[in-house]
Amino acid sequence: MRVKRALVAIVGVAQGAIGVLAVIFAYMLYHNFFNVQGLVSMSEENVPIYMLLLFVFGFISIISGLFLIHERLEL
């Protein structure tokens, strides 16, 4: 049971961190910090599509990570 609690906590935190990084990258993509659009060879008309995908993935990942952490607290 201890192994399961530890594994759930580790996966939850990692998943939440990946979600936060995806949202931060979407923000950097929109404002073109450090010439991110040029680094990934992206045209201006595709930026909203990538931002939408990154925000959706990020928020779903954050919510899922929070649910996993909540489940760990209930165990």
How does this structure look, described?
The longest helix is centred in the N-terminal third of the chain and has 30 residues, at 2-31. The chain has 75 residues and is mostly helical. The chain has one domain (2-74). Helix 1 runs antiparallel to helix 3. Helix content is 83%, strand content 0%. The relative contact order is 0.24. The mean pLDDT is 92. It is built from 3 helices and no strands.
| Approximate shape | elongated
| Continuous helix count | 3
Strand content: under 5%
**Fraction in helix:** over 70%
The SS-based structural class is mainly alpha
Note poorly predicted spans: none
Short account of what is shown:
By secondary structure, the chain is mainly α. The chain contains 3 helices and no strands.
SSE arrangement:
Layout: H1 2-31, H2 36-39, H3 47-74
Keyword list:
75 residues, mainly alpha, single chain, elongated, 3 helices
